[in-house]
Structure formats: C-alpha cells, structure tokens
Design a protein that fits this description.
The protein is of the alpha/beta class. It is built from 15 helices and ten strands. The model has no long low-confidence stretch (mean pLDDT 91).
Length: 385
Amino acid sequence: MSADFFRAKRPWSKYKDSILEYYLEPYIPKVAKLGKPVLIVDCFAGCGQFEDGEPGSPLIVASTIERWRKKGMNVAGEFIEADKDNFRTLESSLESYEGFVHPRLGRFEDHIGEFAIRASRETIFLYVDPYTVKGLVFDRMKQVYDQIERADASVEVLLNFNVATFMRWALAALRRVEELPDDATNDDSDYQADDPNEQVEIATLNGIAGGEYWRSIASDGALSFAKKLDDFTEVYARKMLASFNHVCMYPVKSKYEHQTPKYMLVYATRHPDGLELMNDAMCNARQQFLGSQFQNGLLFDMTPTTEVPNIAELKKALIEMAQEAGQITRKELRIRALSSFFCRFAQKDLNQAINDLLKSRKLFSDTGKTRINDNVLLSSQPFDR
Ligand SMILES: C[S@@+](CC[C@H](N)C(=O)[O-])C[C@H]1O[C@@H](n2cnc3c(N)ncnc32)[C@H](O)[C@@H]1O
C-alpha cells in the first residue's frame, strides 16, 4: 500500500495541504519578527511530488519559503525522509530550491534531537505527516516539544493522526471488532501504510496514545465509533496541553456525511497568534470542503443549515464573554470566542461582529470609537469618560 501512496494524491489530501499552505504564508512573516531564523521541518517528507504531478508537502513548503526569502525573510526548510527511494525523488524534486532547503536521509527520530538543540537559536515549525500511526509515539514527540520549550523558543506542530486506524487497532486489541462501522472499514478508508487488520500490542497502543486512557474509551459500549474517536482525540489534545498553550484540530473527511474522518490534523502552539492563524487556515479548508459538496456547480446553495455560521449566536456569546470579563481587549475577546467557535468564524468575521456590536452599542470601547485595533479595551458597559 505504501508504494501506491505517491502514485496520485488522494482527493481529501488537498484539505490537509491547503491548511499547511494557508497557515505558513502568514506564519513566516509573523514569527520572523521575533528576530530569529525560522526553520520549517517536514519530519516525514516523502517524495516531494506525486507521480500525477501534484505537489507534496515538501514542494508546498519550499515554494512558500522561497517567496518569503525573496522578500528578505531568514527562513529555511529541512526535509527528513527515511526511505532511500523516496529520498532520491525528494532530492531531485527540491533541486531548484538548493541553498535554503535541505533534504536529509534518515529517520525523524534520529534527526529531531538536533532541531531541539537548534531551537535556542531558531523558531521552529514541525510538520509531522507519517503514513503509519506507529510513527507517532507520544512520549518521543513530547520530549522534543519540551526540549524546545526549555530552550525558550517558539515551537509549533501540525500533525496528521489517523485516529480511525488507532481506534480500529484498539478495538481489535480489546476484542471488540464488531463495533466497527462500515465507513471505517470500506475501501475508501485511508490506511496508507498501516495494516488495519494487524494485531497491535497494548503496549504499542499505550505508546502512541501516551497512556492507557484509550482503553476505557474503546471499551465503552455506549459510545459509537465516531464518539470514541472524538473522546480519544479530546484526551489526546489535553495531553498535548502539557507542552503547549493551545491545541486545536480539524477532521479531514472525503464526504460530509461520513462519520469517520480520514485522519485528524492536530495543531499545537504556545502563542495565541498561531491559534488565530490556524483558525483562519482551518476555516478556509472547511469552506472549500462544504463548497465542493454543497455549492460548486449547483443552482442553489445546499449547505446544511447546521453548517451555516450563526452570526446572531456569535454576537450573543461575545456580549456574554465581555460581561464575564468586565474589560477585555479585542484580541483577547477573539481568542476566547475561539473556544466555542473554532473553525466557524475567521478573524475578519470576528472583528466584523465586534465592530457591529460597537456600532449598535451592545459593546463599548475604551477609546469611544468603533474603529479600533486589537489592544483597545472593550466592555459590555459604557466606560466612564
Ligand atoms: C505520508 S508520507 C509523507 C507525505 C508528504 N507529507 C506529502 O504531503 O507529500 C510519509 C513518509 O514518511 C517516510 N517515513 C516513514 N517513517 C519515517 C521515519 N521514521 N522518519 C522519516 N521518514 C519516515 C515514508 O517513507 C514516507 O515517504
């Protein structure tokens, strides 16, 4: 199955790639302001390009880096690939980016210690897209995050976790395979290099999950497969919060009605700006996904009503959040709103909603103006002037 992987890009991979590209574009100039060189590490790089000519993550990353280098930013890329044949293709596909893009033959595990050390001098973004779930050992990843944190550096990670494969293995290990739904086992599932029928040891599952919590979730007969995936990912995200301040995720699906995502993209950062940039990138991917199924080429917009952003609900929540906070900056209010509306509203929509509330005097600004910047204090009560 792994040999087939690079033959043609899977249709749903375009959402994963779009999130990566959409995020990196503003991320690079933003973190460049920290004054340190910026390093993008594609930890499981692959071939660079698919046989159908579609770019893989290395080409997406390299071309974004090139654009910003031309504008004077100090940014470079490292691309790690363990398979010799894939590495040869990777090297040739990255040839035209020589000088600031470095392909490395070897295993991510063997190289990553060096990046953790370099983190004291560089700002690092890790893209982790293994095609086997076993490539993600929680504690090994955590060591890297924490080593980078000790260096007091900025680190962000975007990782692709095939949670359906994990849960399928988990159910098999607990002898509960009868609970698998059709869309987790049909041919359309994205198992990449993993064998979904493999009997995986409990210790290996503990290593991937970073604990035994998955067992109670997998063995809870009252939870549907989809709910098990949600609960598992929620605890996994909470565990990442030990190393980061913000963790968010996006389920990559091929069809809206599918209960089982192809995989989960998990993003973690210490900085609220990163969360906002990723929210915009994931909102954009979600719009593309909904548009491809419910709008493009159709006479009417067929988007399910539950997916249409509810501005009234957002505004009500913004007022309540401002009431609860007493006084809060526009930026802080937006970040709070993301806890309930992540991937629903982009930053510009949140600003627009705040602006409308100022104009209709449901919110008030410290400056008394309705055109404000991120640092202006807001309140649900007029300020004494
Ligand atoms: C899913 S593919 C990456 C696809 C790539 N992100 C893209 O968009 O084109 C995963 C790649 O990781 C490589 N790989 C597997 N184990 C690895 C390891 N331990 N370290 C580095 N690369 C590894 C595989 O050979 C494969 O080419």
